[in-house]
């Protein structure tokens, strides 16, 4: 079993919840092609501005992959402006394992996460990625911090 951190926006998190599917752009084919049924995916929602407030990055749920990767170009996901008209066509069907009552504050965990080697420039470990594999101990740390 492999553990994944899937990086998305608040808008696309709502779609993941509704449709039980994860999708990435074509350029992330190498990462998603390694996802297998039974793998566990943590959904990480990026930081965003809400009015004058900043809502920090958070982990909101655990899902299990229940399909192989498949291609579907239907436009269910919202493409951020910087990505143009992206359809996120490479997809995996999901089964919810746990949707956290309260999202996990990702920044608080950075000092203890093994996959983040540079704690001061931690965003570099996520920037430009749709998903990344994480060690089991990081998966357990994140999920044990949830409610």
Question: What are the SSEs and their pairings?
Answer:
Elements: E1 3-8, H1 10-19, E2 21-24, H2 29-32, E3 40-45, E4 48-50, E5 53-55, E6 58-65, E7 70-71, E8 90-105, H3 106-109, E9 131-134, H4 136-144
Parallel strand pairs: 1-3
Antiparallel strand pairs: 1-9, 2-8, 3-6, 4-5, 6-8, 7-8
Structural notes for this entry:
This protein is α+β, with helices and mostly antiparallel strands. It has a single domain (3-144), classed as Roll (ph1033 like fold). 18% of the residues lie in helices and 35% in strands. It is built from four helices and nine strands, in the order βαβαββββββαβα. It has helices spanning 10-19, 29-32, 106-109, 136-144, and strands spanning 3-8, 21-24, 40-45, 48-50, 53-55, 58-65, 70-71, 90-105, 131-134. Strands 1, 2, 3, 6, 7, 8 and 9 form a seven-stranded mixed beta sheet that branches. A two-stranded antiparallel ribbon has the order 4-5. A hairpin with a 2-residue loop joins β4 (48-50) and β5. It is globular. It holds the Pfam family EVE. Belongs to the UPF0310 family. This is UPF0310 protein Kcr_0474.
Characteristic key phrases:
147 residues; alpha+beta; ph1033 like fold; seven-stranded mixed β-sheet; two-stranded antiparallel sheet; 4 helices; 9 strands; 18% helix; 35% strand
Residue runs with pLDDT of under 50 for 5 or more positions: none
Class based on secondary structure composition and strand pairing: alpha+beta
Corresponding CATH superfamily:
ph1033 like domains
**What would you report as the Rg, rounded to the nearest angstrom?**
14 Å
Provide the domain count: 1
| CATH domain topology | ph1033 like fold
List the total number of helices: 4
Order of helices and strands: EHEHEEEEEEHEH
- Chain-averaged pLDDT: 90
Q: Would you identify the CATH architecture?
A: Roll
Strand share of the residues? 35-45%
Total number of β-strand segments? 9
How helical, in percent, are the residues?
10-25%
Largest sheet: 7 strands, mixed
Envelope shape: globular
What's the level 1 CATH class? Answer: Alpha Beta
Distance between the first and last residues' Cα: 23 Å
